[in-house]
Amino acid sequence: MVPFQVVRADDPDDRIVRCPVSGATFRACDFSGTPEETIDDYVYKRLNPSGEYTLIPPGEIRGIFRRVNAGSLGASPVEILQKVGREAGADGIIAGYLFCYRERKGFDYAVESPASVTFCIHLIRVEDGVSVWKGVFDKTQSSLLENILEILPFLRGGGKWMTAEELAREGVREILDGFPAMKGN
Predict the structure, then answer these.
(1) The whole model's pTM is what?
(2) CA distances in angstroms from 27 to 47, 65, 109, listed in the order given
(3) Contact 71/12 with Cβ under 8 angstroms?
(4) On the chain, which terminus has fewer CB atoms closer than 10 Å, C or N?
(5) H or E element, residue 108
(6) d(C-alpha 37, C-alpha 3), whole Å
(7) CA distance 74 to 3
(8) CA distances to 10, 36, 140 from 106, in Å
(9) 87-107 tens-digit pLDDT
(10) How far apart are CA 154 and CA 161, in angstroms?
C-alpha cells in the first residue's frame, strides 16, 4: 500500500482535477495539514484484519515510492506503481488519491458550511498495470431535509453534522466494504 497522494489543481482558480490512475475528474478544494496520513491509517487498519493477503504498510513502502518516483521522470503514475510493486515483491498495489478535505464550519448541530471529502482508492495488478478494483468517495454532508436518502450515514454519524475526519472514516468504511478480499467478511 503506497501512501495516499494529494492531488491539487495546477491553477488555484480551477476546481477540477484528474485521478492519476483512471483519469476521472473530481472537484478539488484547498485544505491544510496532512489528512492523507489519517486516511492511510484508516485504510490500513480496515484492510489488514482480513488475513487473505499480506499487506505491507505505507510506512514501509514510503521510501521505495519516493525513490522510484524521483527516478522515473516521464513515467506514468501506473508505471511508477508497478515499479514500486515489483521492488516490494507484491502482486498488487493499493494507491489512494485525496482531492478534497474541507472541514465543516460550525458545530455538531448547526453548520454554516458542511464537511466535504473526496478520494479514490485503486488496486493495481503489478504484472500488467491493470486497475482491478477502485472505490470512490465523494461526499458533502447534507441535511435530512435536503436528502432523506442520507438517513443511514446521518445516523452512523451520531445524528449530527460530521467533521471531515468523521466523514473520511465513514468513506473508508463504505468503499472498502466492496474491496475484493472484504466481501463476505
Answers:
(1) 0.84
(2) 27, 26, 26
(3) no
(4) C
(5) none
(6) 7
(7) 21
(8) 30, 23, 14
(9) 999 999 999 999 999 886 765
(10) 8
What is the number of alpha carbons within 13 Å of residue 95 lying toward its C-beta? 25
The answer to whether 81 and 95 are in contact (CB under 8 A) is yes
Q: Which three cell numbers stand for residue 143?
A: 441535511
Contact criterion met (CB below 8 Å) for 103 and 167: no
Q: What is the pLDDT of residues 138-166, one digit of tens each?
A: 998 754 444 445 555 555 556 667 888 99
- Edge-to-edge order in the sheet of strand 116-125: 5-6, 92-102, 116-125, 131-140
Cα 173 to its chain centre, rounded Å, is 11
Cell numbers at residue 91, please? Answer: 502482486
Contacts (Cβ under 8 Å, ≥6 apart) of 29: 15, 99, 100, 101, 102, 116, 118
Residue 98 grid coordinates? 485525496
DSSP E strands: which ranges in 37-152?
92-102, 105-107, 110-113, 116-125, 131-140
